[in-house]
Structure formats: C-alpha cells, structure tokens
Amino acid sequence: MPVKKPKKEKPKKKWKPFAPEVYQQEISQLAHFSAKTVNSNTPAFGVRIGVKDRIDIPYVAVSAMDMSAIPVDYEKNAGSIATIVAQVSAVVEEGLQDYEEPSSKDIDAISSAASSLRKKYATPLSLVGMRLRQVIVQDVNGEDIALTPLHSAGFSKQLESRLEKELEIEKELTGSNKYRPRGFLGIGGANPQNVGRHTRSMQRPLWFTAPKEDMDIRKAFAFHYRGISLAIPNDILAEFHKWRQRLLAKHLDKIPSDQNIREKEKEYLLHMVKAVIDRAAMATLRLNKYQDRLPDGELTSKSLNPVMRGLLDHDTRDLDWKRDFAKAMHSKIIDSKIWVDGKKMGLNISEDDSDRWISIIEEAL
After folding, report:
1. How far apart are CA 224 and CA 165, in angstroms?
2. Could you tell me which of 264, 266, 365, 252 has the C-alpha nearest to residue 311?
3. How far apart are CA 152 and CA 95, in angstroms?
4. Does residue 230 have a pLDDT over 60?
5. Are 104 and 87 in contact (CB under 8 A)?
6. What residue ranges in 96-169 does DSSP mark as E strands?
7. For residue 2, is pLDDT > 60?
8. b/e per residue, 93-128, with b = 16+ CB within 10 A?
C-alpha cells in the first residue's frame, strides 16, 4: 500500500514589533466594508459597524450578526499596514501559533487597542469615488437618498470558515465530503492582498439557482393589497345592452316599467353581481390557503378600501357594508364600456334611471 507522506509544517512567521501608538492608529481605522473591494482604483474608504448597531432582522448580513465575530480589514495596502493587520488578526483571532516568538509587549498593545473595534467608524470623506455605483432610494418623507453598496471581505472570511467547518463535520459523520456549488470572481486581480487581507475569501462565492416564481402566492399577495376587479364580464354586459336596445327601439327610446321587464332587468343585475361574487370567492379561497404567509396573518391589507376588504374577508364587514357594496356595483355597471361593431361605447344609463338597482343588489347579498 502506498504510504502517505507526512504533511510539511508551515514555517512560522517572524514577528515584527511596532509602537503601541501605531497599533492604536491602524486598529482604529480597520473596517468591515471597503470601497477597494468594489474597485481597486477608487479612493480608499471603509465603514465599520459598531456592536451596538446590530439590528434584529431575518437576513444574513453583517449588521444582523455579532459584529465582533466578523474580521475587519484595512482600507488600502500602504506601508506596513498588511503586516500590522496580520499580527493584529493573530492576537484577536487566536492565531499566535503561526508566529515565531511574538512580542508580549505588542500583544498587550494590540489587546488594549482592540476595544476600539467594537465601535462604529467611517473614513472621513467628502466625495464618493466616481468608480462606485450609487442607488437612489426614497425615505419616509419622499426625499431622495443616494446609497453606495460596499462589500465585506470579513463577512466572506467568516462564511468560508463556516463552510470549512461544515465539510469537516460531514466527513466525520459520513466519511465523504459535501461540496456546495461555488463560483469564481477575480476580485483584487493579480494581487488581492492590495485590496484587503481577506479579499481572497471573496473570490469563491456560493452559487445558487434563481428562485422560481410562485404564481399562486403572488396572486394571493395581489389580492391582499389590491383586491379584485369589480368589472362585469363583457358577454353579460353585451347581452344586457342588446336587450335594452331592443326595448328602446320597440318603445320609442323609452323602456316600459311593467313587471316582466322589471323581473328581466333584475335577472341581468343578479347575473352581474354573481359574476363578481364568484370572483371574490375564488380570491378568498386563495387568501385562506396562504393566510399564514400574508402580512400579520390578515387576509386583506388594512389600507384596502373597506368595501373591497368586506368583499374578500367577511369578518371585516360592518352594518353598512351591503349598502356600500351595492352602491359600488351600481356605479361600476353604469360606467361600464362594451365593444359594439368594433367600437367601445357606454351603456348610456343615467344614475336617476338606475337608482333602484342599489336596493335590488343589496337585497341579493
């Protein structure tokens, strides 16, 4: 059997001493987010989020995590900054075993200055680099705000560490490796260390397929926020219009008011209302199906018109709902348009001539 060669131990790095004030100065300017990770030619800029700034949101983000566990990085590689940050990381992230005779004086200086990493920080800057993108959004008052998206190499480092730990656990449990699909991004170019200490961790992002659109839940949300259309099906309107036109032609542009005609008119009206009620019932079934995924578990949004809310959610109906809905349907019917001989035209029914419809519709509910 072939014998595995023992792994060679990595040579330990030599520790380079620095003055306490140098550590203090450089540590105070380390950041979670850096402009250089977006474009290496942009002016240096960094942002560090303070531990007290954490927000409780259900997202994977630096601001939603324990900021003290996210490695910080330098804004740009200049002078001895890479060496300083490497030694700071060795102390803060318990990696002193990689160094040959680390200076106890330096360790004390780093430990003392490291408390500033818990506080928020942003590089003083009056202008945004031209190579950075900006997104314009509005605040609650409708005022425009320009946001500049930045990347966090430290977050990528934390993610990479978790993926490596996941591989170790999987191998211990099953004896095989579990790989997640990952892509490659050439962030940092030929010298990623010039952009940041943890830039290489950004080069292997997780690869996911795009989420599939769920039309059912999408329609449920549409009903929740916008309700349904009260429009009458065109075939019903067209039949109603032809019936009225026959009567008008037969009786010199006046529709008689005998019992048979009133009953026929009522029949058409009920047919129209039933089409809308059936449409609402189907929407309510879908809302009930996804109620647990709707905002606050409510079938309809509180900002929705009360008449529409009552139509889709019977529990929200008040004593005036039937009357209000009948008025809404009455207006919808007389304002409807139909296609006649390739032209769109109205029904030519006035409110006064059809006011009695409100009571007919209300009684039918």
Report:
1. 43
2. 365
3. 21
4. yes
5. no
6. 99-100, 121-122, 135-138, 144-147
7. no
8. eeeeeebeebeeebeebbeebbeebeeebebeeeee
Listing DSSP states for 214-261 in one string gives: -HHHHHHHHHHHH----PPPHHHHHHHHHHHHHHHHHTTT-----HHH
Kindly calculate the radius of gyration of the chain based on its CA atoms and give it in whole angstroms: 35
Structure-token pair, residue 317:
């109906």
Condensed to tens digits (0 to 9), the pLDDT of residues 274-285 reads 999 999 999 999
Rounded CA separation 11/15 (Å): 13
Q: Which two tokens stand for residue 97?
A: 């075993």
Question: Distance (Å, rounded) from C-alpha 99 to C-alpha 95?
Answer: 8
Neighbouring residues of 189: CB distance < 8 A, sequence distance ≥ 6 = 40
Token pair recorded at residue 83: 């060496």
Structure token digits, residue 67: 């900021």
pLDDT for 1 equals: 46
pLDDT tens digits, 87-99: 999 998 878 888 9
Helices (H), 138-205: 153-174
C-beta separation of 39 from 113 below 8 A: no
The contacts of residue 212 (CB under 8 Å, 6+ apart) are: none
Beta strands 99-100; 13-14: pairing state: parallel
